[in-house]
Design brief:
Mean pLDDT: 92
Strand order of the largest sheet: 7-6-8-5-9-11
Helix content: 40-55%
Largest sheet: 6 strands, mixed
Shape: globular
Length: 359
């Protein structure tokens, strides 16, 4: 039987190999975001992953945290940020993070549920589904703090969130109704909440890691994406999928998580600075994301992408069917763990009441 030490060693070796071979193969360049300092003298280093494109404000946050952390710690901590799926898909990178092979991750909220089911509360349809509701949730105090404890029992700490817009459907054929949607093979993330939600909606989802999407879309393996207009435009998915149906059923989030053992190895003063830096940068980036979505939708429309909205009746149907997802996933999201200091009887109901969710 393979022990934890062996598994950890293998994970470390995989990351080292990925970092070593990444310059060999043509891939996205990080030159545009190169640090304006020499990190070689840093006393502490953390490798942090993200799957997406740093033109997205919520992804760029990793570079902003890197630079601000360097400044505030006087060059003691270097955050070595790896976006563009440089270290692989999110599920495999989550495993690397848990084992300590890397130290941090800006993980999408949809993938985060694999190690922290409580994170799934933000994926529930028509709950936290606007920038205003997201700001309200982020400022909720103990509710948000409890949310960020979702992976604590896995040895992973959550610090804060950035966003990437409102979820809808990018498709290769127009989707103007539920009937149209039922003909589409939608790519969805590797997340239990999303799979359950699409089942309740009666659609045809294809679970797929994000790095596999471009080829699958071009080859017709999928003909739709469950994602946000900002991401679809910036990552050029609109070059194939020329239509977008605006549902605004959930907010796309990146949750900034870190290996607890690594974080706890830092001196107390640097731990404090680290947390404050992440919180300050994330708050600034969330504000910028609101305008970025507006700008990216305008750019997409100018490039010929057609946007649609479903009828009020169809939207009411999706919300009614989606409420089944709330109920079905409640036990997982409400589950408490030894490290939880806030112990609500029903976390989902508290969030629903605070946000003003109507069934």
């Amino acid at each position: 039987m393979i022990g934890n030490r062996t598994v950890k060693l293998v994970c470390v070796m995989v990351v080292v190999i990925c970092l070593w071979i990444s310059p060999v193969f043509a891939g996205p360049s990080l030159d545009a975001w190169k640090a304006n300092f020499d990190p070689s003298g840093a006393k502490y280093k953390c490798i942090v992953s993200n799957v997406s494109h740093p033109v997205i404000k919520g992804v760029y946050a990793g570079f902003a945290i890197r630079d601000e952390l360097w400044k505030r710690t006087n060059g003691q901590i270097y955050l070595d940020y790896k976006p563009f799926s440089m270290l692989g898909g999110e599920v495999e990178v989550l495993n690397q993070l848990q084992m300590g092979a890397i130290q941090g991750m800006g993980v999408s909220s949809v993938a985060a549920t694999n190690l922290g089911p409580r994170f799934g509360v933000v994926n529930l349809p028509f709950l936290i589904n606007s920038f205003e509701k997201l700001d309200k949730f982020a400022g909720s105090g103990q509710l948000f703090d409890h949310f960020m404890m979702a992976m604590d029992h896995q040895g992973i700490m959550g610090l804060d969130i950035t966003g990437y817009g409102n979820y809808g459907w990018a498709t290769t054929t127009p989707v103007k109704s539920i009937a149209d949607a039922k003909k589409v093979k939608f790519r969805i993330a590797e997340a239990a909440v999303n799979q359950l939600n699409y089942k309740n909606w009666g659609f045809n989802p294809v679970v797929m890691p994000w790095p596999d999407v471009p080829v699958a879309l071009k080859q017709g393996v999928i003909d739709g994406l469950d994602h946000t207009p900002m991401v679809c435009n910036i990552t050029k998915k609109f070059e194939v999928a020329k239509y977008f149906t605006q549902l605004n059923y959930a907010q796309g989030l990146f949750i900034w998580i870190f290996n607890k053992a690594w974080f706890n190895s830092l001196p107390a003063d640097l731990q404090k600075t680290f947390k404050e830096t992440v919180h300050d940068v994330c708050a600034k980036i969330r504000a910028e994301t609101v305008q970025q979505e507006t700008d990216q939708i305008a750019k997409a429309k100018a490039a010929g992408i057609e946007f649609f909205k479903l009828s009020d009746a169809d939207m009411a149907t999706l919300q009614s069917q989606g409420d089944k997802t709330h109920k079905a996933f409640a036990a997982e999201i409400n589950k408490l763990y030894p490290g939880d200091t806030y112990r609500p009887v029903n976390f989902i109901e508290e969030v629903q009441g605070f946000i003003g969710y109507s069934k």
